[in-house]
Amino acid sequence: MSDEVKDAGLVAMISSILGGNKRADPVAPPPLAEVPPIVPADPVEPAATSRSESKSESRSESGSDAAKAESAPDAAAAAAEPAEPPAQIATTRDGKRLLPAEAIADLVLGELRKLDNFPSSGVSVTVYGYRHWNAMLTFAPFSTSFQNATRFRQAVPDLVFKLRRFVELEI
Q1: Who contacts 16 (Cβ-Cβ below 8 Å, separation ≥6)?
Q2: Is there a contact between 156 and 137 (Cβ–Cβ < 8 Å)?
């Protein structure tokens, strides 16, 4: 991140602390896609299979060539067959998916990552509420500029409105 961007962020923070009336110029949020969000069936499952594959690979590396030949077909067969059927996603009467707050936060963050100049780290999404849930963005210091943070925060209400058509918060 350049020194100019850091300086602009510091100036904005100091002026807001000291009661400065300087506000960010209103920026139109970028347009969001009209495609419904994609919910992964079980985000924990692929990580577990990759860990087990890496363990079998590390064991086979320490073994002989015959052990390597035997473990390779086993790993391929394990990857081809799912360990258990995908979990059923709960839905409401009107067809919305019931998801916990963490899953909705991941959806919001995934949609925001599609925007230009969105930081790869230092961003937190908090989902709160019940019937009409909402999302809040917080940025770590120096993760983005003040202008970009304002632009991303302005995009959140539109994104939440569109996601509410497909997703309901599970309590």
Answers
A1: none
A2: yes
* pLDDT, tens only, 146-157: 999 999 999 999
pTM of the complete model: 0.50
133 contacts 127 by C-beta, under 8 angstroms: yes
60-89: b (≥16 Cβ within 10 Å) or e: beeeeeeeeeebeeebeeeeeeeeeeeeee
Euclidean distance between CA atoms 147 and 36, whole angstroms: 28
Instruction: Tell how strand 123-128 and strand 134-139 pair up.
Output: antiparallel
Considering only CA atoms, which of 17, 27, 18 is closest in space to residue 145?
27
In this prediction, residue 56 carries a pLDDT of 46
What span, in angstroms and rounded, lies between the C-alpha atoms of 162 and 13? 31
d(CA 75, CA 58): 12
pLDDT 10s digits, 46-65: 444 444 444 444 444 444 45
